[in-house]
Specification:
- With 167 residues, this protein is mainly alpha-helical.
- Helices cover 66% and strands 5% of the residues.
Length: 167
Amino acid sequence: MEFGREVGRSGYLPANSTHAPHCYFRDNMGMSATKAKARYRKAILSVILTLLSFFLGVSINALGRMTGAPGWSIWVDDISGAVLLGLVVFVYERRRERELVRKLQVIELMNHHVRNALQPVMYLPYSQDQELQMNTVRDAVKRIDWALREILPGSSPVEPPSRITAA
């Protein structure tokens, strides 16, 4: 079976396949629908908040002019509204940055565990013992499986399975 055409970021489709593109390793179709709904909700919320802040600002300006408030008080109101909006955006961006850093730490930890599990496999061509080769590959698969189960969901990492050392 020849693998040639890349499908997405997480899988490959056989070059001679006539099937619709999908991922061999994981079906992410449900996730994309959920992400689309979340994006739609965020867009609607941001539009509503923008319109709400606009109409609130216009109302306060109109009320200030109707009551005969001096021009400087309207300016102070506009500046305080801008500062408040800036603080909201700042807090949101900080929260988003913390979440991104947390995800990057998970990726870094996964990279560490997968590379460590694959390191012994690199030296297998130099070994003549077939049982040692099978045990090494089996151990690497167990360690990678452990990392996928324990680290990716974001749970606190527990001790990885011990390595089997052959003499």
